[in-house]
Write a structure and sequence with these properties.
alpha+beta, single chain, binds zinc ion, three-stranded antiparallel beta sheet, about 20% strand, 16 helices, about 450 residues
């Protein structure tokens, strides 16, 4: 079995690809457009520089080779969602080629990366077969799309889902893509179990890619079992019905009648600039997984889920400045992710800050509350003000430095070895001392204040 993917991701630049209209989600239809993205005769496109930079970032993160020069072409396109009747895309020389993406131990080759404009959005009132007319919303028209094409290296629908998930994570770390926008990642897939390739168009979401491919493979196997022949065609995925339907017998590339786009200049891909972008690439999820293992001995089954969402990873790294990394990893990978999933929110949607989780984990590690209570409190923290939840739950914090100072002094006098350990560079000794102070305050001391005072004392 051979599966290849063609992934279209919307880039989160401030403005559209060829005009200065705002590139954001807007409910009010046809409110973010101008003559260029409406495709009016005589209007001229101007390239958005940051869209090119975003493309270069993606190309480098996917280990691709960049050409010296890139340019755009026109692709014949006759649908109401592209009123100028051609789409500006890349064909002859793509922005990048010959890269790869890896997940677990699976490597999938990237054939090419193109930049192109997204068409407008077509809206059918009711279902596609019932609607008497279509509505067209040009707000989406001209949104920068990055098209990533893989070689048919994928061997199963599940592998396709894992690769897409990994790609989404990479794009989120690059901060060029927002998975929460509906339709921000749309996938075309080709699949062949014998000689003939069948293309499935327009699948959104990783789970649906897996479903569509599973359906298509069974369909093809059934045809072959009955002695039939699979025809080369393009099929559409109907997510509601859970089936693929024939759309058209496959057209060839020459049918699109590509010509160079005469209204846009050639783009020089400056080597210095590329080197600068390469330097600015973030630490990716897979690199974090390896580092957590090396630095804190956190196993992959805990670190992998924590690093999928960069916001969670960032919060985790803040929390472990104050909390035992292994304790935090277990809590993040299990309770935190489970609770967020259950409430169908991302951490950004909540008011939870790293300091709240530090407080909560302090309470658990000092056995002031059980893990189960911690989980219940976390659920409330998602809905209400986290500070309020910590306070209501009997955690009336001691912030008063005059009260905390003597307790810290006492804890230090009782644990001289911990102080020596700390001064010789053992970070865990600090957590230990914080823990001792916490225990003495029965978990009510404000951890931030305790840490501040303790650090001050230890540096004397
Ligand atoms: Zn515009």
């Amino acid at each position: 079995m051979k599966i290849g993917l063609e992934i279209h991701t919307q880039l989160t630049t401030k403005t559209k690809l060829f005009c200065s209209c705002s590139n954001r989600m807007e409910k009010n239809p046809n409110s973010l457009c101008c003559p260029t993205c409406l495709g009016m005769p005589g209007s001229k496109p101007v390239i958005n520089r940051s869209a090119i930079d975003y493309g270069i970032k993606i190309a480098l993160a996917l280990n691709c080779r960049l050409p010296q020069e890139a340019f755009f072409s026109r692709k014949a396109y006759f649908y109401p969602d592209m009123s100028k009747n051609f789409q500006i895309t890349q064909f002859e020389i793509p922005l990048a080629r010959n890269g790869f993406i890896k997940t677990n131990n699976k490597k999938v080759r990237i054939t090419r990366i193109n930049l192109e404009e997204d068409p407008a959005r077509i809206v059918h009132l009711g279902t596609i077969t019932e609607a008497k007319y279509v509505l067209v919303d040009y707000n989406r028209s001209g949104t920068p799309l990055c098209e990533i094409v893989t070689e048919p290296d994928i061997k199963s629908p599940k592998e396709a889902r894992l690769i897409l998930q990994e790609l989404s994570t990479v794009l989120q770390y690059l901060d060029v893509f927002d998975p929460d926008i509906e339709g921000s990642m749309r996938v075309d897939s080709n699949v062949s179990i014998g000689e003939t390739r069948v293309e499935i168009k327009n699948i959104s979401g990783f789970k649906d890619v897996e479903r569509a491919l599973n359906y298509e493979i069974i369909r093809q196997k059934n045809i072959l079992r009955r002695g039939g022949k699979i025809i080369r065609e393009t099929r559409a995925w109907d997510a509601l019905a859970g089936v693929t339907r024939s759309l058209r017998v496959k057209e060839a590339e020459e049918d699109y009648g590509y010509i160079f786009e005469p209204d846009l200049p050639r783009i020089t891909i400056d080597r210095k600039k590329v080197a600068g972008i390469k330097k600015s690439l973030p630490e990716f999820a897979s690199q974090k997984v390896a580092r957590y293992k090396k630095q804190f001995s956190i196993p992959k089954n805990l670190s992998f889920p924590i690093t999928i969402d960069p916001d969670i990873a960032e919060c985790f790294e803040e929390v472990i400045k104050n909390i035992d990394p292994m304790l935090a990893a277990r809590f993040f990978a299990k309770e935190l992710l489970k609770t967020l999933n259950y409430s169908k929110v991302t951490i950004k949607d909540t008011s939870i800050m790293p300091k709240h989780l530090v407080d909560l984990l302090d309470l658990i590690s000092q056995k002031v509350i059980t893990e189960r209570t911690g989980e219940m409190m976390l659920r409330e923290m998602i809905k209400k003000e986290p500070d309020e939840v910590l306070r209501i739950r009997g955690v009336s914090r001691i912030f008063d430095e005059k009260v905390l100072e003597p307790i810290i002094k006492e804890a230090m006098e009782e644990n001289p070895t911990a102080i020596i350990d700390y001064k010789s560079g053992k970070k865990e000794a600090f957590h230990f001392l914080v823990g001792q102070v916490m225990r003495k305050t029965k978990g009510r001391g404000d951890s931030e204040t305790i840490r501040k005072l303790l650090r001050k004392r230890l540096s004397n």
